[in-house]
């Protein structure tokens, strides 16, 4: 993910020492890399799919574990009294799902050491319910998510998404929006009866999203930070627009 062109065009100032939210984080790879590369103060990744959130939490633990191993190899030895089987202690959190966290036992770079504290993942339905993020954010990412919200909740769900993002952003905050083109909707219109119905009743198309966010929702500016990302995985070479509140 370090080489993902989408990350290469992001500005450090949007994230560094900032509180961030990644909507539809999938397996959390972009979320984790943003925390590492841009040193955000905190970043929350949410997704409606519990399986993907479990994968994201696993990827976070593996990222910290890999950095830990690299530090040890670089030093050439383990700390006194610590062997490879004791690198991590298992602690059960007090959260409702009794999530297992891995705490490092070997000192490393402070920004790597606190990755488990700065990055968190939650299974959430952002459109209908949002319980884990009462705070507001400096940056919100919504990358390749709008189509799925649009197909599952129709125009009203899309507008609810935009409205909620606006409320959760701090003044001066940025929304990074990567929308799927209307042509890609057709392929999935028969996934369920609800999606079939929503698809038939959609009036707001992706080429209208910019005007909706500026004229209806209230964002003050919109800058296309890329029109075509060469080298991006096929299907993800879409424009990304930075909307400022």
From TrEMBL:
<comment type="similarity">
    <text>Belongs to the methyltransferase superfamily.</text>
</comment>
<feature type="domain" description="Bin3-type SAM">
    <location>
        <begin position="4"/>
        <end position="245"/>
    </location>
</feature>
<dbReference type="InterPro" id="IPR024160">
    <property type="entry name" value="BIN3_SAM-bd_dom"/>
</dbReference>
<dbReference type="InterPro" id="IPR010675">
    <property type="entry name" value="Bin3_C"/>
</dbReference>
<dbReference type="GO" id="GO:0008173">
    <property type="term" value="F:RNA methyltransferase activity"/>
</dbReference>
<dbReference type="InterPro" id="IPR039772">
    <property type="entry name" value="Bin3-like"/>
</dbReference>
<keyword id="KW-0808">Transferase</keyword>
<dbReference type="GO" id="GO:0017069">
    <property type="term" value="F:snRNA binding"/>
</dbReference>
<dbReference type="GO" id="GO:0040031">
    <property type="term" value="P:snRNA modification"/>
</dbReference>
<protein>
    <recommendedName>
        <fullName>RNA methyltransferase</fullName>
        <ecNumber>2.1.1.-</ecNumber>
    </recommendedName>
</protein>
<dbReference type="GO" id="GO:0032259">
    <property type="term" value="P:methylation"/>
</dbReference>
<keyword id="KW-0489">Methyltransferase</keyword>
<dbReference type="InterPro" id="IPR029063">
    <property type="entry name" value="SAM-dependent_MTases_sf"/>
</dbReference>
<dbReference type="Pfam" id="PF06859">
    <property type="entry name" value="Bin3"/>
</dbReference>
<keyword id="KW-0949">S-adenosyl-L-methionine</keyword>
<dbReference type="GO" id="GO:0008171">
    <property type="term" value="F:O-methyltransferase activity"/>
</dbReference>
């Amino acid at each position: 993910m370090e080489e993902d062109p989408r990350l290469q065009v992001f500005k450090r100032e949007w994230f560094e020492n900032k509180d961030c939210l990644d909507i539809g984080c999938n397996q959390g790879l972009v979320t984790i890399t943003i925390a590492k590369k841009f040193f955000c103060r905190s970043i929350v990744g949410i997704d409606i799919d519990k399986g993907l959130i479990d994968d994201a939490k696993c990827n976070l633990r593996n990222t910290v574990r890999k950095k830990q191993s690299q530090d040890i190899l670089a030093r050439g030895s383990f700390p006194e009294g610590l062997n490879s089987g004791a690198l991590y202690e298992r602690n059960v959190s007090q959260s409702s799902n009794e999530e297992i966290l891995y705490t490092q036992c070997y000192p490393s770079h402070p920004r790597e050491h606190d990755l488990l504290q700065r990055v968190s993942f939650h299974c959430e339905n952002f459109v209908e319910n949002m319980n884990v993020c009462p705070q507001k954010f400096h940056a919100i990412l919504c990358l390749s998510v709008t189509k799925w919200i649009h197909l599952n909740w129709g125009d009203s769900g899309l507008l609810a998404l935009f409205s909620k993002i606006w409320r959760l952003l701090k003044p001066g905050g940025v929304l990074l929006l990567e929308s799927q083109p209307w042509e890609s909707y057709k392929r999935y219109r028969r996934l369920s009866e609800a999606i079939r119905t929503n698809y038939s009743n959609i009036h707001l198309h992706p080429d209208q999203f910019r005007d909706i966010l500026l004229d209806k929702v209230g964002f003050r500016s919109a800058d296309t930070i890329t029109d075509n990302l060469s080298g991006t995985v096929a299907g993800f070479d879409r424009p990304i627009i930075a909307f400022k509140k």
